[in-house]
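User: These chains co-purify. Model them together.
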Amino acid sequence: MSRTTFFERNIGRTRNIGRITVEVLDGRTRQQLCFLDKVEPHATIGEIKSLFHKSYQQLYPARQDLKLDPKGKSLRDDDVLQNLPVGTTATIYFKDLGPQVGWTMVFLAEYLGPLFIYLLFYFRAPYIYSHQDVFTSSPYSVVTLACACHTCHYIKRLIEAIFVHRFSHGTMPLRTIVRNCVYYWAFSAWLAFYINHPLYTPPSYGDMQVNYALAIFVLCELGNFSIHVALNNLKAEGGPKCRRFPHPTKNPFTWLFFFVSCPNYTYEVGAWASFSVMTQCLPVALFTFLAFIQMTIWAKGKHKTYSREFKDYPQLRMPIIPLLL
Amino acid sequence: MSAPAMGTTKTAHSDVAPKKKRGPGALATAYLVIYNVVMTAGWLVIAVGLVRAYLARGSYHGLYYSIEKPLKFFQTGALLEVLHCAVGIVPSSVVLTGFQVLSRVFLTWAVTHSVREVQNEDSVLLFVSAWTITEIIRYSFYTFSLLNHLPYLVKWARYTFFLVLYPMGVTGELLTVYAALPYVQKTGLYSVTLPNKYNFSFDYHTFLILTMVSYIPLFPQLYFHMMRQRKKVLCHVEEYKTE
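Assistant: Joint model of the two components:
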């Protein structure tokens, strides 16, 4: 070992003091995908993802899932390298999440579809019903009312998606969106088919049934909107780090928070249930039932998260149905 | 669809994965052993019934009637397996098991039982024999696995016979549904038309056609999944043996 080498080695070390070497391996094959040396210790995972993206044009940051342990939890974009349990060399495992789509795009796709599809059926576009029924209209007022309700429901959702919601994750996998869209679009086509059918039978209890159901529908829509606004304000006040759970506010619709963790889902189920009663249409009831199951699953998850995170979480609250579920 | 694929996740757990002993407790194991023994016996009864009827009649025709009751009883009994998954004593997915059992039950009741005219078809014998052999092997496989004394022959049979039995069963099922179509259309079986109070309609004929079409994406997936399982289970064992 010559003196010069020893010296040079020490100088090299001082210059690189604190710097971390990052190697990115494929989570499945353990092949080395990327080698980044002399990374600043206060660099974030987000910055690592950007650097990785430079080597792999297709794999934009939203598509990258980075972990310290291939079977462990994913690293967040705002995690700082030096705060993680890595030494001077960090080994990070990579997984491709597949093509991603931003949440706003997701909601636009999921909601514009049913909106237009229903209208196609309402106006009885060609090739849906028999030839003589093309562009005719139903003699029943409930059919027009149902169209108005359905359309307003999705317009409200679009407004919320664009102006109200704040999303914690940036994106959603492409495959999920395709699946969701197929589900929403197909179901709305199916229920629109029956409501706007020339052989549609109006509700058994006539106007009384329609009017009461309509009233409940409107109340539930307003309720749902109020909850979304309340949840949004909660996020706005607190910011991402400050975690608080939602409370009832001055708005009477939010008083459901006394009884339920996810009143937005409660109101949503209420709206669809009243729509089923208003149209007296079995496919709508089926859609309501399936939506209820899915939202109950989500509500239970949310309720569990809240209960675990907040020690003072109100005991009275149930996930989705007051006092019951 | 026939059940060679049923419980593949189960076998994946018990054969390929290293002993993850989060299995059932002693009572549950005893119950499952009894269940699997009873099912093996039941399908053996069906097998014997088919052979005896064939020998008595001298032809393949109309054998369905000789085993109609035990077939309905034991195939419907398989619904318990969904419960086993739901309760957790069997480490399989409820959805996957449910789907497979329901497709079998559907064929037994909603097609073969409901449409009398197809009961004489040879395609019925085709899928019944495929199911019978498959189920005898499958239930004995589970019985032996639970008792931790699985003969290689049974494991080999379970992962090899499906190569022929699965396509055989699927062919029989599809031909039977196809044979049922004209009768369903003629009688409007299980169909609801407009107008009606709940604004709903259901055309069973179209539903059956859609069911047949669904075999196209589903069958290859399940078949190749079983082939991959076969490679994993049988080749893994050979490696183990040579060590």
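The mean pLDDT of chain B is 88.
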